[in-house]
From TrEMBL:
Catalyzes the conversion of GTP to 2,5-diamino-6-ribosylamino-4(3H)-pyrimidinone 5'-phosphate (DARP), formate and pyrophosphate. Residues 19-185 form the GTP cyclohydrolase II domain. Its EC number is 3.5.4.25. Zn(2+) binds at residues 68, 79, 81. GTP binds at residues 63-67, 84, 107-109, 129, 164, 169. This is GTP cyclohydrolase-2. InterPro entries: GTP_cyclohydro_II, RibA, RibA-like_sf. Binds 1 zinc ion per subunit. Keywords: GTP-binding, Hydrolase, Metal-binding, Nucleotide-binding, Riboflavin biosynthesis, Zinc. Coiled coil: none annotated. HAMAP family: RibA. Its cofactor is Zn(2+). Belongs to the GTP cyclohydrolase II family.
Length: 219
C-alpha cells in the first residue's frame, strides 16, 4: 500500500492490488454463473471472474480470457477469441465447476483497441500480427497476469487446469504464484479468415496449435 499527501499535508493511504467489490448471479446460455467483480487499484481497471459451481481450491478448471471486443462482441473471424470464450464457458458448465477470468485492459494483447485496429489494418496489407505491432512501435505482447492471479487467490484457488494454448500464459501465472497442474487445449476449428493469424501465433508466439496441420492446403 502506498501513501498520498493530502491537501493538509497529511499522508493518506492509497489502495493497491485487487479488491473484490461485488458478487452477482449471472444466468447465461451456458449455465448459471456468479459474476465476481473486482477493482484493480494499480491500473484502475474493473475486472470480473465468472464462477460456476463449487470450485474448491485445487486443479480448478480455469480460463484467463483476454478482452477482445471484435471477437467477443462482434463475432470477428480475424481471431478465434469469441469462440474460445464460448468454448471455455461451455467446458466449465460441463465440468460442473470452474472459473473464467475475463481480463479487461488486455485488448490486442495489451496494446488497446485503437492500436489493435491499426495493427489489423496493417495485417490486411500483408504484415503478420507480430510485424504489425512492431511496425507501430508497440510491444508484441504487453499483457500482465498479476491481477488474474490475485483474483484467483481471492477465490481460494491454489492450482488450476488452465484452458489455454499459450505456454507463456501458463508460465506467467506460475510466476505470480498460482500453480498450473495441467494445460488444457482450447482448439477452435480455423477458417480462411484467421488461418494466417493462427499460424503466426503458432510459429512466432509459441502457441500449441497442432490442429492447423489439417488445413495445410490453405494458403
Amino acid at each position: 500500500m502506498t501513501e498520498n499527501i493530502g491537501v493538509l499535508g497529511k499522508k493518506t493511504p492509497q489502495r493497491t492490488g485487487v479488491e473484490r467489490v461485488v458478487n452477482a448471479p449471472l444466468p447465461t446460455v451456458y449455465g448459471k454463473f456468479q459474476a465476481v467483480g473486482y477493482l484493480d487499484h494499480d491500473r484502475g481497471d474493473e475486472q470480473v471472474a465468472l464462477v460456476h459451481g463449487d470450485i474448491g481450491t485445487e486443479r480448478v478448471l480455469t480460463r484467463l480470457h483476454s478482452e477482445c471486443l471484435t471477437g467477443d462482441a462482434f463475432g470477428s473471424q480475424h481471431c478465434e477469441c469469441g469462440d474460445q470464450l464460448a468454448a471455455a464457458m461451455r467446458a466449465v458448465a460441463a465440468e460442473g465447476a470452474g472459473v473464467v477470468v475475463y481480463l479487461r485492459g488486455h485488448e490486442g494483447r495489451g496494446i488497446g483497441l485503437l492500436a489493435k485496429l491499426r495493427a489489423m489494418a496493417l495485417q490486411a496489407e500483408g504484415l503478420d500480427t507480430v510485424e504489425a505491432n512492431l511496425a507501430l512501435g508497440l510491444p508484441v505482447d504487453a499483457r500482465d497476469y498479476g491481477v488474474a492471479a490475485g483474483m484467483l487467490r481471492d477465490l481460494g484457488v491454489e492450482s488450476v487446469r488452465l484452458m489455454s494454448n499459450n505456454p507463456r500464459k501458463r508460465d506467467a501465472l506460475q510466476r505470480h504464484g498460482v500453480q498450473v497442474t495441467e494445460q488444457v487445449p482450447l482448439l477452435i476449428p480455423p477458417c480462411e479468415s484467421n488461418i494466417t493469424y493462427l499460424r503466426t501465433k503458432r510459429e512466432r508466439l509459441d502457441h500449441n496449435l497442432p490442429h492447423l496441420d489439417a488445413v495445410a492446403h490453405w494458403s
